[in-house]
Each structure stands twice: as C-alpha cells, then as structure tokens.
DNA sequence: TTCATCGTTCGGTCCATGGCGAACCATTTC
DNA sequence: GAAATGGTTCGCCATGGACCGAACGATGAA
C-alpha cells in the first residue's frame, strides 16, 4: 500500500494557483480530460501535464485512460471535503452567500456559462422545448436545432468536435445542471462575441452588459 | 465587510512548508508568540515575521500585541476546520502507526476534544439520543439540552457566540466525526475545568486523569 | 537612564519551480 | 497506410520568494 503524502508535501501540492484551480474545476463532480484542465486554467498542455502529475503523486486526483484521452477526477470524497473546506475559508463572507455574488450570478465553467446565468439560459431552453433531459446529457430537439441556427450558431462544426455534444454540468453554487459540452461552449462563445457578457479580470466571473441584458431577456425571457 | 482571500491567495498562503507547520502548531489551541513560532519551525525571526504577515493577510491567523510580544492564534474555527481537513488527507496512510498513540487517544483539535476521546464522547451522546446527525452539523435534542445543563454547562452563552453551534469535525486520526463548534468548545472547556483531562506539554496530546476516567465512565459509559 | 528583549525592515543571495515551445510517442480516424 | 489529435518529455528561461544577517524601533525591566 502506498502511504499518503505528509502534510508539507500535501501543502506544496495544493499551494499553487494553477493546481488549486484544477481542483476547483474538478469540484464540479465531473471527470475532466487533461486538455480541458489545461484550457480551464489557461496553461499549456505541457505545463498541465506537470501539474497533474504532481497532483496525482500527492494522491489528490486519480486518472484513467480512455483511448488517447486521460480523464482526471478527485481521488476521494475526502479530498473533495478538503477542497470544500478551503473554499469555505476563501469565501468566508459574513453573509449566507457561500459564493461571492459575481461568481454566483455569472461565471465561466472552463468553457461554458455557469452560475445563475448559465442555469437561467439552460432552464429557458428546456422550458421552450429546445432541449430535453437525458440521463447524462441534454438532447437537442428539432425545434432547438432551428433555434440555435436562428440564433446564429452553426451546428455543423459543433457536431464535428470530438467531445460530448451537450453535457450536463452540475453547478456547485446553484446545485443544478446547466448546459456544457461542445454546444455549451459554442453558446458561450457566441454570447461572448455578441458582446452580451464580458470577462472580469482575474476571475471566472462574467459581467452581463446592458445590451446583453436586453438580448437575454428577448431571447430567453430571463435574467 | 471583510472579504476573505480568494482561493488562489489562500492556497498560496497555505502552500508552504514553514507556514503549514505554523498552522499545525497553532492547532493546539494555544496562542503562541512570534518567537515560539519561529523556533518551532526552525526559522529566523526575520523569516517568521514575513510568514506570519502573509498568514495574517490571508486572514488565517489573528494577532494581538501583549507588551513587546505579539501573540498569534488561528483566526476562526473555520480555519481550524480547514487545517484539520488538510491533515485528514495528509495522513491518509494505511499504516495507523503514522499517528503517535497519545494523539490518537486524546488530543485537542483547536478548541475541542478530538482523538478517540472526542469521538467516544460524541458517540455516547449520539447513542443516548442527546445529539442527532444533520447534514453538516449535529443537532441538540431536548434531552440533550437537559443533559448539558445537568452536566453543568450553561447553554445560554454558548448559543450567543457568533459561530456554528455544533459543527461536525472530521477527525484525521480516526476518520470519523466528532463534536466541534461552540458546543464542542464549551464541553472541552468544562471537562478541562473539572480536572478530567490535562494538557501534555508541547503537544496537542491530552492526558485523562484517574478522576477523569471515573467521571467519563459514569457520564458517558465509555473509555 | 540604561540595558535587554522582541519584532520589523532592508538589502542581498540563491534555489525551486512554473512556464513555454518543440520534438516525440500513442491512439484513433479516415 | 496517412493524418489528426491528445499527452508526454526535454531543454531552457525567468521569476518569485524563502532565507539570512545586520541595523533599527519599541517596549519593559533594572
């Protein structure tokens, strides 16, 4: 049996901006492939490999190979508990909002929209019958197909991507699913290029612009 | 409105061998002056100052001046919980001997009882129906309320404290929950003032006195 | 007042390590 | 087979930050 890391080794493994963000990304409960983690932390694949090796050596993450992908997940629920404890201290705000307001409202979840914004959009699409729920994913209905094309998103290149099309992603601040996968990423990117949302510096937080508020209300009837 | 540090700042503050060792030292529940922390981590006073400033800036420790001394303590019970969670992951070694016996048996966890002692007491209270399990905390039942009053603990001032009342704290040596929070601290303090347990010098370890063994057996039927 | 002690500031050294690009395997797809 | 894609290895650079000694306030004791 392998011994766990001692406290200083563990602290060293946790105590890096990129690595803690990787753990944060993995807190969503989903397994992520190395590339997603690299992208989500804004780091090159080479650097990501080094970080992931270190995290794995500290027994904080586990990896399994799936074809030419390598998928990572938190090693144990205990690790998740630890990361949660870190988050709790990090956002130790006196008010009940365990998550800072900007992040609750709208934020990136590595390449798609999360927070209330992502959830609201997803809900609207579900209510309108453009999406339907599957066990582990969403399905795009015919009306949804038309809607996305109409919205200005060409579905051809989205379908061609070698990744899940419309994944369900459990939000850790809202505790509900939102749209992820290639479709979620395409939606986020489009909404972004429309100027509806803007990046907050040094944060996954997003800002909904005035024009974005109008557009979101018109197209989704929410927010 | 004191916003906590963001997660990366926090991780950076935690992720250093000397600083995590300082936090570990402060887990004994005692306040330590800067020099003790410097000596305890084997580092010069100048270096210790830098580390302590960083810890304080991340709101992990609090300091007060007493004469020409500066005494440090963990900022909040939440921080203690976080350090405990780190320890839990760190010693996740299959070799139980990794934890010295005295610490396994009875020890302080910041301000409440841990180890087998803390766990045994918690179990006894649960079995007797004085406590019940909630998702993230314990709840004090009516019979428990009577029991605590009868035991000599006035619950009024405990309830007035601005901290969680009866938190669940995962023990890093026993891998099970024990009673923490304001109620756990009050219980520890009371058991301490009864002379049932005594501090081991320079350690988080506690010694159960002969009188304490009788008392614990009578009141909790354990140990 | 004078001395001792504690902590801080400052200047400087030095090493660990996070970061990248490029070349290199491995695997799947066509 | 060839091409595309994901991941790893390697060499290298740059920066951060951990550390110390020495000089310097501040506080309490003699």
Description:
- The structure is a homodimer of 223-residue chains.
- Chain A has 223 residues and is of the alpha+beta class.
- Chain A folds into 2 domains: 7-90, Winged helix-like DNA-binding domain superfamily/Winged helix DNA-binding domain (Arc Repressor Mutant, subunit A), CATH 1.10.10; 101-220, no CATH class.
- Chain A has 11 helices and 11 strands.
- In chain A, the strands form 5 sheets. A 3-stranded antiparallel beta sheet of chain A has the order 1-3-2. Chain A has a two-stranded antiparallel sheet with strand order 4-5. A two-stranded antiparallel sheet of chain A has the order 6-7.
- In chain A, helix 2 (17-26) packs across helix 3 and helix 3 crosses helix 4 (45-57).
- Chain A starts with 6 loop residues before the first helix and ends with a helix.
- The model of chain A is unreliable at 93-98 (pLDDT under 50).
- Chain A binds a DNA duplex (30 and 30 nucleotides) through residues 16-18, 33-35, 43-51, 53, 67-70, 162.
List the helices and strands and how they pair.
The structure is a homodimer of 223-residue chains.
Chain A: H1 7-14, H2 17-26, E1 32-33, H3 34-41, H4 45-57, E2 61-66, E3 69-74, H5 77-90, H6 101-105, E4 107-109, E5 112-114, H7 115-127, E6 131-133, E7 138-140, H8 142-151, H9 155-160, E8 168-170, E9 177-179, H10 181-193, E10 197-199, E11 206-208, H11 210-220
Antiparallel strand pairs in A: 1-3, 2-3, 4-5, 6-7, 8-9, 10-11
Helix pairs in contact in A: 2-3, 3-4
The structure holds a DNA duplex (30 and 30 nucleotides).
